[in-house]
Amino acid sequence: MQGISGESPVSPAVAPDRDSGFTAWTPSGVKRKKQRAHNRLVSVIQRLCALCFFLLFFVLLKLKFSNKKQEVPAEYNGEQALQRAKIAEKYGFVDIKYALFYRTRTFLANEYSTLLGTYSDHIAIEENIRKEFFSKIEDAINNHGGSITVYDTIDLQLARKP
User: Fold this and answer.
1) 125-153, pLDDT tens digit by residue?
2) In angstroms, rounded to a whole number, what is the distance separating the alpha carbons of residues 152 and 148?
């Protein structure tokens, strides 16, 4: 539909973009001052959309697991390690051995968020959201005793090519 001047009578403020999710469309005739305000508004909308995405993600996770009885994952054991080690047989390896090592690490809230900050999937989160996310994790840890214990199982598999 066209207006009297040949331009579209409706000019959307934001539109989908493949990189950031939204792109500002500046209506013709908008002065620079209004354009800056418009760009700030679009920036706020982008941040809100990113935050809403993460909030929706956590709400969906809560819904997914809230109606189910909490299942404790099975501890990785020697039988599983043996099965994994035997995969090497298919590729001609012999003298297959495996060993399991266990360690316990206890972190204070800020130490744990520092550890999480080394993981690539956490580094990929936008900085403002990541800081807020880590802050919430630290709050949760501090509200439940101030430390978190991580139990590691390290699987070593050895084999020899004849």
Assistant:
1) 888 988 998 999 999 999 999 999 999 89
2) 13
